[in-house]
Design a protein that fits this description.
By secondary structure, this protein is mostly helical. It has helices at residues 2-14, 41-49, 56-66, 73-82, 85-98, 101-110, 116-126, 134-146, 153-166, 172-181, 186-196, 200-203, 212-225, 231-234, 243-255, 259-268, 272-281, 289-297, 304-316, 322-328, 335-348, 353-360, 365-381.
Length: 388
């Protein structure tokens, strides 16, 4: 159990995006070594011995210092090869940051270790390698791609992440295969494919995959890639039975900047759930006149959820033009929409009084009662408070 806890601490330090934050007032005996000054060999020997410390802040600081010891890379390589598991896991990070030929070869050789923690650490470290030519990156990518079939999902996940950092086209095919078959690491695989910048033609076939998770990730990647031509392949997912597919498709089309496609769908589709997600995706384009009008018209949509969503978007935009549409929502057949409109207008306050008075002139029945009640409450409070 103790060794497991130690491994978890090391993973928390080395995992991409999860590096332990340094405490601003943390001080150790190594502070005078300096993070930018290359330490002497005698200092390196002492530092490596201290890598077995249980103080994770000290370990992280030591690792950062060792990454500056590029002229002593051979010694660190030897220390890695002779070290036990915990030391190897730590020094793998250093070798990746040093990134010279011997360091890279050592990491590649260790990808075949029988110990999964060592394979995991070396896979992460190879993603840190910088400044190598295309041929070398491809060699590293090919070796990492082999780990996408590793028995450990931690190792597969690390390999997928590092392949994205390398941005090597040779990784696209194996990553696509992993995306189709590997449920445990799909997030990292999808992110890496987007980082590499694969062609939309590579991803579009996955939209037909029988697994809904694969289709969803394929939609996300197409949004990240940024190829506007992909929008025509995504529109149909706004009609999907699954809410996740509809939401993901709307978000991807929004990222592509294809607001015209979204507006056309909103104005012509009979799928109320699709219209709802499209409406939410259009919020980022509210300053475009046609989008604004489409959202305003959505206040008359046949579906209550769509009208409610449109109301909230109009309340967010900070434009007095929206008040007239919100006032009309007080006559909505849905109690939820009416309550929301009432609350919004009450918070706006005196600025909406002219619009309420204008509407009162032609209102009748319950609608008239609501308008008069609202007007009375605004005048009573008369604080002039405005959320805009």
């Amino acid at each position: 159990m103790e060794i497991f806890k130690k491994i978890i601490d090391i993973k928390r330090i080395l995992e991409p995006g999860n590096a332990v934050e340094k405490v601003s007032n943390h001080h150790s005996e190594f502070d005078d070594v300096g993070l930018k000054k290359e330490p002497a060999l005698s200092e390196i020997k002492k530092l490596i011995k201290r890598l077995d410390s249980d103080d994770k802040y000290e370990v992280w600081e030591i690792l950062e210092i060792l990454t500056e010891a590029k002229s002593h890379a051979d010694f660190i390589v030897r220390a890695f090869k002779k070290g036990k598991k915990r030391r190897k896991v730590n020094l793998a990070y250093v070798l990746g940051r040093i990134g010279d030929e011997k360091a890279i070869e050592t990491l590649i050789d260790s990808l075949s270790s029988k110990d999964w923690e060592i394979r995991w650490a070396c896979a992460i470290a190879l993603g840190e390698v910088k400044g190598v030519d295309e041929d070398r990156r491809e060699t590293i990518a090919v070796k990492l791609a082999e780990l996408l079939k590793d028995e450990s999902w931690d190792v597969r996940r690390a390999a997928a992440t590092s392949l994205g950092k390398l941005k090597c086209r040779a990784a696209v095919k194996p990553l696509l295969e992993a995306l189709k078959s590997e449920r445990m690491v799909r997030f990292e695989t999808a992110k890496s494919l987007a980082e590499i910048g694969c062609d939309s033609e590579d991803i579009i076939p996955l939209l037909e995959h029988p697994d809904i998770d694969v289709r969803c990730k394929a939609i996300e990647i197409l949004g990240e890639i940024g190829d506007k031509k992909a929008a025509e392949h995504l529109i149909r997912f706004l009609e999907a039975d699954d809410a996740g597919l509809r939401r993901t498709a709307a978000a991807a089309i929004e990222k592509l900047g294809e607001w015209q496609e979204l507006v056309d769908y909103l104005e012509t589709s009979s799928n109320r759930k699709g219209r709802y997600y499209v409406l939410r995706a259009l919020r980022g384009f509210i300053n475009i006149p046609r989008v604004y009008e489409a959202i305003l018209n959505a206040l008359r949509d046949e579906d209550e959820e769509v009208r409610y969503a449109a109301l909230l978007i109009l309340a967010e935009i900070g434009d007095i033009r929206a008040v007239k549409g919100i006032v009309k929502a007080l006559g909505d057949e849905s109690d939820a929409v009416k309550r929301a409109a009432f609350t919004i207008l009450l918070r706006i306050g005196e600025e909406c009084i002219p619009y309420i008075e204008e509407e009162i002139k032609k209102a009748e029945g319950e609608y008239l009662e609501i308008l008069e009640t609202l007007l009375e409450k605004i005048r009573e409070e008369s604080r002039g408070f405005s959320i805009w």
